[in-house]
Amino acid sequence: MRFVLAIVAFVLAAVMIVLGIAQRTILLEPAFSSLTSTATGETLYTVIDPSALAASPGSQTINVRGEGPIFLAYGRSEDVAAWIGDDAYATVALSEKTGELTSTVTAAVEPDTDDDSSDEPVAADAAEPLIVNPAGSDLWLEEVSDTDSLTTTQTLPEGISVLVASDGVEPAPANIRLSWASDNSTPWAGPLLAGGALLLLFGLVLYLLALLHLRRSRRPRRNVPRGPRLPRLPRAPRPKAIKASQITSSRRGIARRTAILPMILVSGLALSGCSADLWPDFSATTTETATPTPTPVSTDSVEAAAELAPPAVTVPQLEIIMGEISLLTADADATLNADTLATRFTGPALEQRLANYAIRAVDATVSPLLALPGAPLTFTLPQQTNSWPRVVMTVIQNETDAEIPPTAIILQQESPRANYLIEYAFQLEPAARVPEVAPALIGAPAIAPDNKLLLLPPNELAAAYADVLLQGAASPSVDLFEDEVDAFRAQFDASRADRQATLPATASIEFGTAAGDGSTVALATNDSGSIVAVSVNETEIVKPINDGATVSPSGAASKALSGISSSSKGILNTYSDQLLFYVPTAGSSDKIILLGFAQGLTQSAELP
Predict the structure, then answer these.
(1) Where do the segments described as Disordered lie (predicted)?
(2) Which of the chain's termini has less CB crowding within 10 Å, N or C?
């Protein structure tokens, strides 16, 4: 009976082990599913549509092959389409009928030549050069490049498209392959292999017990009656000892090897079953049981959130942008390279930094402006928009020196193929209270410059504050502004008093303030107020009052910019002020608060 049970155990073990091995070999499903496409035409750009990326669940492995440089980037589908604009491009999408990738070409949109409003030709040097290479655009969430072949694995959600190009001059690579990792785990292979190994051990034990029982049953019986005593026979000669090398085989050796082979096989099968792919996963069931019931969400809230425009940038995207700008600014500040600086600065921020370059080029003892840190971003407020121009505000803390106040930056992007430029850069007031704003994932809508729902329309803010600086308590707008935390106004009053005190008796001084040329930028806050950035220009005219008297520029900066040591006509100094305010909603009892500022001498010249 033991032999029968052992044979049954061996047979069942063999069946289970074979099934377990078959699940990991001949019955194993592919680890990847893939689709290929060859882009038609010779367009400069190829767009991989979200439908192609979502053809299978999981991460997408994108392989692009061609000759020469290969560029690949991904971003929001609207941003990719906006960057391509009217240029021709190929689209790789998923066909709902065949389930395969298809390629279609969208022809370029020709400019309208029927418009007779501008008959005069535009000078070639007056037009800005057309950007054709997508590399380095601020619209991309991430970009990679290689030569001849490029492979990258991403997990791209819905609404994201991939742009493939060469260098914007040569046609885009045509061969595109998309792959997705498949779940080819075999959760029952482990139990089958382990169960088969246990049955094999069980059968082996039964087999050994059966052999032992059989051997015992063949031994002589101990109760055999004694017969007559036989005479003692002579002792046989003792055989010679046999050396170990003379032994060729024995039944005991064969039996040992027979027993060792199943043990090796069982050990190998047990070790092969350690992979997590070979066993059932019960964690999903446990997690599902422990997950609480989600709170119902109003349908109106979902529809309202879906109608909101997306933020202009994401935080990781802005971190990349600010990192690049920080490195570029550091290089331009060190080499006084105005051309390099102009690729990332504009407006009052550019004007103030270029003036510092001009001063330092004449007088190296003048200190440079504070370095622009690239990280960390402690505050990010992008504009909610699908169009251009776009605005983003961020605050950066200097990691090397905690005593330096955080720097607030206002960036603007004029068009899809233009990069973000810094228009304002302020040092935040230590005592200023920054109002609550929407998270960076949502962004804030831009406020129109003539919005009447604020305590003061944004386009009137610069002129009103300039009047307060000049007239002080006599200004009709003085009650609109908070005075206790306004360090800039105190600094302005102290500087004007000091300038008047040090002025020689043979000269007169005249101060003036007016709204600057910087654009008005306003982003909404959670309390229906707004964060507003404006610029104000200060002027200082010093003239001699006696015939034959002269006046001299005050300070090294004024001397370096004006290029004169004295003048009998007079000297005009112009200061540019970058100002950041919080403006409460109309009817509020709160006042307008200055959040940050930056000031610098931008012009110094002799009066005509």
Answers:
(1) 220-250
(2) C
Residue 519 C-beta-side C-alpha neighbours within 13 Å: 17
Give per-residue pLDDT as tens, 345-395. 999 999 999 999 999 999 999 999 989 998 899 999 999 999 999 999 999
Listed residue (45, 39, 76) closest to 156, CA to CA: 76
* pLDDT tens, position by position, 563-590: 998 899 999 999 999 999 999 999 999 9
Write down the pTM of the prediction: 0.78
Kind and range of the H or E run holding 530: strand 530-544
Q: What's the CA angle centered on 86, arms 82 and 87, to 5 degrees?
A: 105
**359 Rama sector, left if φ>0, alpha if ψ -120 to 50, beta otherwise:** alpha
In the 8-state DSSP scheme, what is residue 607? -
- Condensed to tens digits (0 to 9), the pLDDT of residues 136-164 reads 999 999 999 999 999 999 999 999 999 99
Distant-in-sequence, close-in-space partners of 182: CB < 8 Å, separation ≥ 6: 29, 30, 31, 32, 33, 56, 58
- pLDDT tens across 26-63, in order? 776 665 678 898 877 789 999 999 999 999 888 999 99
Q: What is the CA radius of gyration of the chain?
A: 41
How close are the terminal C-alpha atoms of the chain, in Å? 124
Q: Nearest-CA neighbor of 601 among 558, 565, 566?
A: 558
β 160-165/377-382 pair status: unpaired
Residues in the chain: 608
Total H helices, total E strands in the chain: 13, 17
- 3-class SS at 83? helix
Question: Tokens standing for 96?
Answer: 């709902």
Cβ atoms of residues 315 and 375 within 8 Å? no
Question: Do you find a cis peptide bond into 280, omega within 30 degrees of 0?
Answer: no
Up-side HSE of residue 445: CA atoms within 13 Å toward CB? 11
Alpha helices in 308-382 (DSSP H): 315-335, 338-342, 347-362
C-alpha angle 180-183-187 in degrees, rounded to nearest 5: 170
Q: How confident is the model at residue 24 (pLDDT cuts 50, 70, 90)?
A: confident
What local confidence, expressed as pLDDT, does residue 292 receive? 38
343: left (phi over 0), alpha (psi -120 to 50) or beta: alpha
Cα 513-519-521 angle, rounded to 5 deg:
110
Asked if residue 444 lies in contact with residue 524, where contact means CB atoms within 8 angstroms, the answer is yes
Residue 522, H or E segment: strand 521-524
Q: How many CB atoms lie within 10 A of CB 200?
A: 22
Q: CB of 608 within 8 A of CB of 547?
A: no
Whether 352 contacts 578, CB under 8 Å? yes
Closest CA to 411 of 503, 312, 309: 312
Q: Domain coordinates of the chain in residue numbers?
A: 1-29+184-214+260-277, 32-109+132-181, 315-606
Lowest mean pLDDT among 74-83, 409-418, 503-512: 503-512
